[in-house]
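Aim 2 progress update. The chain analyzed this quarter is reproduced below.
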Amino acid sequence: MLRGIWILGIALIAVWLIKIMIADSASLRTNGYNPRVQQTEERFIRGALRDSAGRVLAETVIEEDTVRRVYPYGEACAHVTGYTGMGKTGLELAANEWLLQPAGFEEKWQQWFGGDKIRGCDVVTTPDAELQTYIYGLLDGYRGAAVVSDPSTGKVLALVSSPSFQPETVEADWDRISQDEASPLYARATQGLYPPGSTFKIVTALALYRTAADPFAYRYTCTGQIELGGSQLRCSHGLIHGDQCIREAFANSCNCFFAGLGVKLGGARLQQTADSLHIGRTFSFDLPQSTSSVRLDASPTEAMIAETAMGQGETLMTPLQLNMISAAIANQGIVYEPYLMDRVIDKNGHTVKKFLPQWYGALMTPEEAAYLEELMEGVVTIGTAPSLADARWQVYGKTGTAQVGEGIEDHSWFTGYARLGDRTVALTVLIEIGGEHKKAVPVARKILEYLSEVGAMPE
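Predicted structure tokens:
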């Protein structure tokens, strides 16, 4: 008996040591409390963070006896770059290992035998700094977020949260920004959890496709309101949409249609569909993220099912998660892990490491993706986002207004994707307490105009 306990104890210690050496090694190497990391930093000139075009996002500047970290794009890229000095956040933390890695053989030799500081490698990121800056300007004065990504790879082209902060002066500004009610340190694009509103009708529409032999055969007559379990739900502005199929109801964003459809499908089917899209699961990403969720208990009321089907109830999603679902539809059901680091380069520009797309999952079949694309096309051609129609691109999307509380203006959403020439971009915009979708849609259009005018998508 004692021998068995002793063997079990030895086995558990071995597993623990293996976990530390393999699974936890990366986090230990970048942990700011690791004294070896602090000692290493004293011997290094920290490498630079660069955008996809090679522009400097963060670099170390030495002037006489002063060493400081500068961030040329400031607030626009702050939630991506993070900061260093007063701890580390963002890519300053995630890329720490590479930024403190000797950039070549000369540096390694110098590290072993010399006393001078050694220059670390540079990390080239996937976002485009000019696109980031442009979008941040569009969100000026709003609390919100925008995510732009490449559906074919998972590469994040822009990840913007507003308001933001100046990473160079974060220590000096700490008392002010940490108490600011607008929460400029809060990365809304990845950590903000919001009711998705009508953008969740993508999920409900997919549940119908997976249930009905012919999803277009299901019809519902909207009278402008519906009563379920003592609760009354209305269409926006009291609109009466009349007799509709899923195509028309999706384009019109008819609340009554989707509330009734949700009850008909049942809570289990809605939950199952949400789970199949990995809503509620974590995924690998370079920055901290919140976990989206759809919660329908074992015996939900009709009112709760109806609210969930409309994107209300206990449903919360991050802009990044919603962008991944849009990317999956654009990519025939396949979605890749979103990522922010493209490659590590030495002082001569030689690639030390290349980060490749990582397959995340097949969230739906190509046929399901084509069905959702047809519905999302109708939002632009006959529905709630006609201002996105343009000869320069083809847009597929879903608008949304999400109720926040009594007397508080709704959140405004747009999510979808656009084909510009031979490239496709997934795009999600959130404006907190922005009212009708008209707030998010113009921002989405401005982003598409920018991408069209620069002549090519950011690489």
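The mean pLDDT is 89. The radius of gyration is 25 Å. These observations will guide the mutagenesis experiments scheduled for the next reporting period.
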